[in-house]
Design brief:
Blueprint lengths: L42 E4 L4 H12 L2 E4 L1 H4 L7 E4 L2 H9 L3 E6 L2 E6 L24 E2 L9 E2 L6 E6 H7 L4 H4 L6 E4 L8 E4 L10 E5 L2 E2 L5 E2 L2 E2 L10 E8 L3 H4 L6 E7 L7 E9 L3 E12 L2 E12 L10 E13 L3 E14 L5 E5 L5 E3 L13 H4 E5 L5 E5 L4 E15 L4 E26 H6 L2 H7 L5 E6 L10 E27 L2 E26 L7 E6 L5 E4 L5 E28 L2 E24 L12 E29 L2 E12 L3 H5 L9 E14 L2 E23 L4 E23 L6 E24 L2 E6 L11 E11 L4 E10 L2 E2 L7 E2 L2 E13 L2 E8 L7 E3 L16 E6 L4 E9 L1
Parallel strand pairs: 2-5, 11-16
Antiparallel strand pairs: 1-3, 4-5, 6-7, 8-15, 9-10, 11-12, 13-14, 15-16, 17-18, 17-50, 18-19, 19-20, 20-21, 21-26, 22-23, 22-49, 24-25, 26-27, 27-29, 28-31, 29-30, 30-33, 31-32, 33-34, 34-35, 35-36, 36-37, 37-38, 38-39, 39-40, 40-41, 40-42, 42-43, 43-46, 44-45, 46-47, 47-50, 48-49
Helix pairs in contact: 1-3
GO molecular function, one term: siderophore uptake transmembrane transporter activity
Subcellular location: Cell outer membrane
Keywords: Cell outer membrane, Ion transport, Iron, Iron transport, Membrane, Signal, TonB box, Transmembrane, Transmembrane beta strand, Transport
Length: 918
C-alpha cells in the first residue's frame, strides 16, 4: 500500500520522505498534439540524474503532464536522453525496462513493474503498452493524504482541465461551471456577480459553494452581500485545472461550503524555460490576451502570467463595458523535505453587470420582447445613464458613474510551506492576506408599463406642487418632448463601495498510524469590511440604451407648468447603508480514513466558532430644499449615530463516508454530511435581522462509478434537507420609490440524481465521442408558512409543497464530438436543456424551460500553434435565467403582468483564439 501524502516531483527523494508523489507538469494552453504528429517532434537533452528529476525534465521539454509514485522512483538513476523521439519513448528510455509508460488522456503515467531492482541502467525502449492508466489525482477535499483518482474518491467530483476550459469558450467562471452536474448556473450577469445554486440549496450568489485557489479560500465568506466570490478571481491560462466537489466532505474543509467546493489549481513553476501565449477576439469587440511564462532562477523556479481584456459587451452599452485583467507572480523552491511557494496576485478589472430587461407576456402565454427592445442583445444601461449627478441627504452632489460597473482592485499574497517531518507525518502551513476595494455600480430595473399607467401614481404629488395640474406627460431629461403613448420603466441607480481586508491561515498535519490515514487542521480567518451605499430612482424609456425621463405637469389647456422630477430622478436617496464590521472565524477540523476487508471508511469533523461585530449608522429620511421637485422630498441618509451589533454562532460539521470497489473499474460509495449555514456581516446588518440564526443542512448521497480507458460513468443519487431556510425580500414600490424588506423561514427538501458520463470510440478520442451531464431533482419547500398584514388584517400564507426559487427539475447537457486528422482536430456541439423554474416562493411567476445549442472547433496548425473557434446560443434562444428579484421573491409582483422584467441569456456570439507554445 502506498504511504500517505504527496509531493511534487522536483522534491528530492529522501529515505524519510512521504512516498506518494503527484507530478502534474503543466497542461498545455492548447490541446496537446496527437501521438502521430507531435510526439515525434520534440528534441530532448536530459543527462543521467535521479530518475524523478529526469522524468520532470523530459516532461518539461515535451510540455506534457506526468504522474508517478515517489516510492517507485526513489534512489533510481535515469539513462541520459538525447535527440529527437516521441515523448513516450523519451520517458521510457529515461526510466528503463523496469518501468512501464502508458498514456491516460493528456497525461503519461510511469509505474514500476513487479520485482525490479533498486538501481538499474535502462535497457532499450520496449513496445507500447496497451493497458489502461489511472486517472489524474484529485487534490480537493480529500479525507486523507493518500492520493485518490476520480474513480476511487468517496464523493462526487468533476475535474475541468485546461483543454476543457479553452474548448468551452467560457466568458466567466459561472459560465464554465455549466458543465458540472448538480449546479444551476445563472451566468447571464456578465463576467462576475453571477448566481449558482447547487443540489437544491436556493441561496443566491456563491453563498453555498466555497471557492478555493490552490487550497485556500479566495474569499473566506463566498456569499457576502454585493461581494460574490466570483468577483475576486478570473479564469485565465495560469490555471492548470478546476476541480468541483459537490456535497461530500467539502464543509469539513471550508466555511459555508454547504453544497460543495470549487478549487482553482494554478500551474506549477517549470524546471525548464517555457512560455505560452493565447490571443482571442470575438463579438462585442472582444479582445483578450493570456500569457504564462516560467523558468528556473538559481535554486528557485519562477512563473508569471495573467490576462488583459477589453470589450464593448455582449449587450452593447455605448461605452467600454469590460476593461482590465489579472496578473500573478509565483516563486517556488524545494529542499530535501521542504517545499516553499510564494505567490502574489493582482486583479484590476471592471466589468458590466447585466440585469433584467423589459419583456411582455402575450395573451397566449408566450414571452416576447417588448416592441423597440432587443431582449437578446439590449440593455437599459447606456450613455445617458452612464454619468448622473446624485444628491445625498446633506445636499452634496455625488457623481454616479455606471461605467465602473463591478470594479475590483485586489492584491493577494500567499505563502505555502510543506514540511515532511518524517516518513509518517507532514505539516502544511498556508497563509493568505488580501486587500481589495470593490465598487458595484448598477442600473436595477423595476416594473415596465405603459407611460399612462406609470404617470397615474404621480398626479397627486404634481397637484401638490402645481394645483392647476390636470394631467402629466413625459419629456427627456434634456428637455426634449416625448410622446406619452410609449412605455416607461422605473430603475434604481445604485452605487455600492466595499473595502475589504482579510487574513486566512490554515495549519494542517497529515499522517498515518496503525492503518489509519488522518488529517488534523486549525483554520483562522479575520475579515474586516465596510459598506457604503447610495442610490437614486429614475424613470426610463423602454429601449436599448434607455434615456432618462422627466415628468411634466400640464394644465387644462395643455400648457406645461413644469417638471416635478429633476434630471430624470424621481427620488434621491432611495436606499442608504453605512457600516463597518469584522468577522472572526476559528475552526478545528480532522479526518480519519481506514480500510476493513474490501471497504474503506472515513469520517470528518469540523468545529467552528464565528464572531460578528459591526457599527451601523442609523438612517432617516431628510426633506430637501427644492419645493418644485419631488426628487428630494425624502432622501435617506445617515444621522451620524452608530449602533454596535455583535453576535456569536457555533457550527459543527460531521461527514461519514463508506466506499467499496466492485472491481478495478467500478466502485460504489455512500456519504452523509450534517452541517449548517453560518450568518455573515451582510445578514446581521441587513433588515430584517431580528431572528438571525444558523440554518442546519443534511446532505446524503449514494454513488456508482465506472471507468474504462474509453468510457466513464458516474451516477449519484442525493438528498438535501435545509432547515430554517431564510427567504428574504427587498421589494421596490414604484408608487413611493422606496424599498421594503421582509423575511420568511421554511424547511426545504430536494432529492435527485446526477449523471456524468463519457463514451469514446477510441481511447485517444480520435473518432466519435459523447459526453453527458444531467440532473433530475425535485426541489420543494417542506413547509413555508407565515402571516402578513393585508389592509390591516392578518392573512396566513402557506407555500408548503411549492418548488424552490429558480431551481429547475431537469437539466441535461449533451456534447457529441469528433476527433479527426490523427487527433490534430476536434469539433463538438453542445445541446443544453433547462426545465422551467419559478421566480418566487408562491410559484406565481414562471420562468419557461429553454434549450440552447453551442459549437466548438479546434485544430493544431503546428505542434506549437492551435486555433480554436467557439459559438454560443446558435439558435438565438430567449432563455430566462431569473425574474426580477426586486418584484418580490416570496410573492412576485410580476405574476401574470402583461409587462415585466427578467434576465435572459446572451444572444448568439462567436469567439476565436490562437494559442502559441514556446
Amino acid at each position: 500500500m502506498a504511504q500517505s501524502g504527496f509531493r511534487l516531483n522536483r522534491l528530492k527523494a529522501g529515505t524519510g520522505s512521504i512516498s506518494l508523489v503527484l507530478c502534474l507538469l503543466f497542461a498545455s494552453a492548447t490541446l496537446p498534439a496527437p501521438p502521430a504528429h507531435a510526439e515525434a517532434d520534440p528534441t530532448f537533452n536530459v543527462p543521467a540524474r535521479p530518475l524523478a528529476a529526469a522524468l520532470s525534465q523530459v516532461a518539461d521539454q515535451a510540455g506534457v503532464q506526468i504522474v508517478f509514485v515517489g516510492a517507485e522512483v526513489r534512489d533510481h538513476i535515469s539513462h541520459s536522453v538525447s535527440g529527437a523521439m516521441s515523448t513516450k519513448a523519451a520517458l521510457q528510455w529515461a526510466a528503463g525496462k523496469d518501468y512501464e509508460v502508458v498514456r491516460s488522456g493528456d497525461a503519461y503515467v510511469i509505474r514500476r513493474r513487479a520485482k525490479t531492482l533498486a538501481r538499474h541502467i535502462p535497457a532499450p525502449i520496449p513496445a507500447a503498452q496497451a493497458d489502461s492508466a489511472p486517472e489524474e489525482v484529485i487534490v480537493t477535499a480529500r479525507m486523507s493524504a493518500l492520493s485518490r483518482t476520480r474513480l476511487d474518491s468517496s464523493y462526487a467530483v468533476t475535474r475541468l482541465t485546461t483543454n476543457t476550459i479553452q474548448m468551452s469558450g467560457s466568458l466567466s467562471a459561472a459560465d464554465l461551471l455549466r458543465a458540472v452536474p448538480g449546479l444551476w448556473v445563472e451566468s447571464s450577469g456578465g463576467e462576475a456577480s453571477n448566481n449558482i445554486r447547487a443540489r437544491g440549496i436556493p441561496r443566491d450568489g456563491f453563498s453555498s459553494l466555497a471557492v478555493f485557489e490552490d487550497g485556500l479560500p479566495v474569499q473566506h465568506d463566498p456569499g457576502l452581500g454585493y461581494l460574490n466570490a466570483d468577483q475576486s478571481f478570473r479564469i485565465d491560462d495560469t490555471l492548470q485545472a478546476v476541480e468541483v466537489v459537490r456535497g461530500g466532505p467539502a464543509s469539513v474543509f471550508a466555511s459555508n461550503a454547504l453544497a460543495g467546493l470549487i478549487n482553482l489549481i494554478p500551474r506549477e513553476a517549470p524546471s525548464q524555460p517555457e512560455t505560452r501565449l493565447r490571443l482571442q477576439a470575438g463579438d462585442g469587440n472582444y479582445r483578450r490576451m493570456d500569457f504564462w511564462t516560467g523558468a528556473p532562477v538559481g535554486d528557485w523556479r519562477v512563473v508569471t502570467g495573467g490576462f488583459y481584456r477589453a470589450d464593448d459587451g455582449l449587450r452593447p452599452t455605448g461605452y467600454t463595458a469590460d476593461r482590465g485583467g489579472q496578473w500573478r507572480l509565483t516563486a517556488q523552491r524545494d529542499w530535501e523535505h521542504i517545499k516553499l511557494s510564494l505567490d502574489y496576485k493582482q486583479l484590476d478589472d471592471s466589468v458590466a453587470f447585466y440585469l433584467p430587461v423589459p419583456l411582455q407576456l402575450t395573451i397566449g402565454g408566450e414571452i416576447k420582447p417588448v416592441p423597440g427592445f432587443d431582449a437578446l442583445y439590449g440593455t437599459l444601461a447606456g450613455p445617458d445613464t452612464a454619468a448622473v449627478k446624485m444628491i445625498d441627504a446633506k445636499g452634496q452632489t455625488y457623481p454616479f458613474d455606471l461605467k465602473r460597473g463591478t470594479e475590483v482592485r485586489l492584491d493577494q499574497y500567499t505563502v505555502k510551506l510543506r514540511y515532511e517531518l518524517n516518513d509518517r507525518l507532514t505539516l502544511n502551513e498556508s497563509l493568505r492576506w488580501r486587500r481589495s476595494s470593490t465598487w458595484r455600480n448598477g442600473l436595477f430595473p423595476g416594473y415596465p408599463n405603459t407611460a399612462s399607467e406609470k404617470l397615474k401614481a404621480y398626479l397627486p404629488a404634481a397637484q401638490a406642487i402645481y394645483p392647476q395640474a390636470v394631467r402629466l406627460g413625459l419629456s427627456y431629461a434634456d428637455g426634449t418632448r416625448l410622446a406619452d403613448d410609449g412605455q416607461a420603466i422605473d430603475a434604481t441607480l445604485s452605487s455600492v463601495r466595499i473595502p475589504l481586508t482579510e487574513l486566512i491561515n490554515d495549519t494542517r498535519l497529515e499522517g498515518q498510524a496503525d492503518g489509519h490515514h488522518f488529517t488534523a487542521g486549525f483554520y483562522v480567518a479575520e475579515v474586516n469590511m465596510s459598506m457604503q451605499r447610495l442610490t437614486a430612482t429614475t424613470l426610463l424609456e423602454v429601449r436599448n440604451q434607455a434615456r432618462r425621463l422627466d415628468i411634466v405637469a400640464y394644465d387644462a389647456m395643455g400648457n406645461p407648468l413644469g417638471t416635478i422630477t429633476q434630471d430624470g430622478i424621481t427620488r434621491y436617496g432611495a436606499q442608504f447603508d453605512n457600516y463597518s464590521g469584522t468577522e472572526r472565524s476559528i475552526a478545528l477540523y480532522g479526518t480519519d480514513e481506514w480500510t476493513f476487508g474490501k471497504w474503506r471508511a472515513d469520517i470528518g469533523i469540523r468545529l467552528e466558532q464565528l464572531k460578528l461585530a459591526a457599527d451601523v449608522e442609523q438612517g432617516q429620511a431628510f426633506q430637501g430644499a427644492d419645493a418644485f421637485h419631488i426628487s428630494d422630498d425624502a432622501i435617506l441618509g445617515g444621522t451620524g449615530q452608530f449602533v454596535h451589533l455583535s453576535r456569536e454562532f457555533d457550527g459543527q460539521t460531521l461527514s461519514l463516508g463508506l466506499t467499496r470497489p466492485l472491481d478495478e473499474q467500478t466502485q460504489i460509495y455512500g456519504r452523509i454530511t450534517r452541517t449548517q449555514y453560518l450568518p455573515n456581516l451582510t445578514d446581521m446588518t441587513s433588515p430584517p435581522a431580528d431572528d438571525l440564526h444558523t440554518e442546519p443542512v443534511t446532505l446524503s448521497e449514494f454513488g456508482f462509478k465506472h471507468a474504462t480507458p474509453a468510457s466513464d460513468m458516474h451516477i449519484v443519487a442525493f438528498s438535501t434537507a435545509f432547515s430554517a431556510y431564510r427567504v428574504t425580500d427587498n421589494v421596490f414600490d414604484a408608487t413611493t420609490n422606496a424599498y421594503s424588506q421582509r423575511a420568511a423561514y421554511g424547511d426545504t427538501l430536494t432529492v435527485g440524481v446526477e449523471v456524468e458520463g463519457l463514451w469514446c470510440a477510441r481511447r485517444d478520442r480520435t473518432g466519435p465521442d459523447l459526453a453527458l451531464s444531467a440532473t433530475w431533482q425535485q426541489p420543494r419547500f417542506e413547509n413555508l408558512r407565515y402571516t402578513e398584514l393585508v389592509n390591516g388584517a392578518a392573512v396566513a400564507r402557506d407555500f408548503s409543497g411549492n418548488r424552490l426559487l429558480r431551481v429547475p427539475d431537469l437539466m441535461i447537457r449533451l456534447t457529441p464530438g469528433y476527433g479527426f486528422a490523427h487527433g490534430r482536430g476536434r469539433i463538438e456541439t453542445t445541446v443544453e436543456y433547462y426545465g422551467d423554474r419559478f421566480a418566487d416562493a408562491a410559484n406565481t411567476a414562471r420562468l419557461p424551460a429553454y434549450t440552447t445549442l453551442s459549437v466548438a472547433f479546434r485544430y493544431d496548425l503546428t505542434p506549437r500553434l492551435t486555433f480554436i473557434l467557439t459559438g454560443d446560443n446558435l439558435g438565438q434562444t430567449l432563455g430566462l435565467t431569473e425574474g426580477n428579484p426586486r418584484a418580490g421573491q416570496i410573492v412576485s409582483g410580476d405574476a401574470d403582468a402583461t409587462y415585466f422584467a427578467a434576465r435572459p441569456i446572451f444572444g448568439r456570439s462567436f469567439r476565436a483564439a490562437l494559442s502559441f507554445r514556446m
